[in-house]
């Protein structure tokens, strides 16, 4: 392939993740959907690897044909380190890299054959023991190695149009793969130096450097996702035509109730919007969670931002869950596919929701479908979220607190500690209870609409059972405690498990904890009033207590309790460490 086949550095980007074809047959219960299951491939011999990738190629063909027909122009895949050879690696690692390279060349050929461009992701940096021994903690050596690795990679893979850089992720201590990512860029100045060092490599090869401006934990660049001053320092003096900023639409993860990230109005560098259509916090496609209304408003607001050149859609990426519906493949998630189709129409063609839905193929009853999708969005907004809490814009340390509380990935939490906290933030508890049951009545209407549209009515039933527990939990949260509500919640949990027993479909884990939470309301008020703030800017108390003292406390805990670290590492995947680091 010649360089003339690559897109220009000025072209628009309409990207979608293509990790789905790598997961059929992966039998691990809880899957990390943020990257390819490399640990699965590492355990395979050469013959088994050949058989697995033969299936991947077939699924990749199906996937790419579908997303290209919709109008996407490129796909993103993991990852550069598993494909880029270097003499600093162990010999066994290099042998494995050569196996992967041959399989991925075939995948790239399939992707390009469907008219799509290929973009590879990578964390900065990903180590093996031998590599870490060679370059250690020297920032200069790390930058030099990264530049050299990318230069060789672009020489070896001329069909790759660019690389998506992630600076804010590191693997927990429980990750046992050959490569382990590690946080090495811990300040805007360090990120700036790194970009200055590697961008000439991208320019030399005419490749796109897509830099993700978000991090998982609240490290020293943990506010890069939302803090305008941090972003300005990070990209100061950079004018490279190869650089594109990839930004989440809000100040937090992929949630509702988020206003447009104001960093879209900072710097003149080109930007793309990251959007999630398989909503990791909203069922992962197990039930309809339509994003049309939410994304329509974002698309309208972004029309006034001249340097937004496209979108990057996550149709499979995100979360640690057992839910495993695969978009655009056999036994796929129709709800995710609808979201993925409509999202592109909104941002690429400037359509409104109803017009975008009307372009969906094989629609037999358009009015019924439009009503079904509208109701699904309303139910999620009114019941999965708690509007009285979700509307509050709250910050703790360097993070914007998520607007979704009590439901996390595939867990529903009902506890006395949550009851105490919600009673501080929610003023109209009875109104929230009534609104929850009103939303449940909309689900009943959705079931009949699904039948009219020839869509899976059983998914709406699953939604009804799941959301019924959430509606009932509001009675526990906002009414005086009595033994009757505890019994009703336990009975609802048993009924849920009976309706969806193991071996039928993956369900939410309902965690009930009615043990009294001993922390008094006075301390909760202190925390909410003094450590949680309502605006992005840092106060003196945030800088002294939130940023400094809590970081020291976390460091002391980490050094004094080494046996706890595997558990802390697992929790870090859920973002809990973001509170302390």
Give a structural overview.
There is one protein chain. By secondary structure, the chain is an alpha/beta fold. It folds into two domains: 3-361, Alpha-Beta Barrel (TIM Barrel); 369-513, no CATH class. It is built from 19 helices and 18 strands. The protein has helices spanning 38-42, 46-70, 91-113, 129-135, 139-156, 188-205, 228-234, 292-302, 334-348, 353-358, 366-384, 387-390, 416-425, 429-452, 457-478, 483-499, 521-531, 540-560, 565-572; strands spanning 13-17, 31-32, 74-78, 117-123, 126-127, 160-168, 180-181, 208-215, 243-248, 271-276, 308-314, 320-321, 395-396, 399-400, 407-408, 411-415, 509-513, 532-533. The strands form five sheets. An eight-stranded parallel β-barrel has the order 1-3-4-6-8-9-10-11, surrounded by four helices. A three-stranded antiparallel sheet has the order 14-13-18. Strands 15-16-17 form a three-stranded mixed sheet. Helix 11 packs antiparallel against helix 14, helix 14 packs antiparallel against helix 15 and helix 15 (457-478) runs antiparallel to helix 16. It is globular. The protein starts with 12 loop residues before the first strand and ends in a 9-residue tail after the last helix.
| CATH classification class of the largest domain | Alpha Beta
Total domain units? 2
Q: Look at the structure and name the CATH superfamily of the largest domain.
A: Glycosidases
- Unreliable stretches, pLDDT < 50, 5 or more residues? 561-581
Residue-averaged pLDDT: 90
Determine the structural class based on helices, strands and strand pairing: alpha/beta
- Beta-strand content bin: 5-15%
Alpha carbon gap, first and last residue: 45 Å
Gross morphology is globular
Query: Level of helix content?
Result: 40-55%
* Name of the CATH architecture of the largest domain: Alpha-Beta Barrel
- Cα-atom radius of gyration: 24 Å
Sheet with the most strands?
Answer: 8 strands, parallel, barrel
Number of DSSP helical runs: 19
> What topology, given as strand order, has the largest sheet?
1-3-4-6-8-9-10-11
Number of strands: 18
According to CATH, the fold-level topology of the largest domain is TIM Barrel
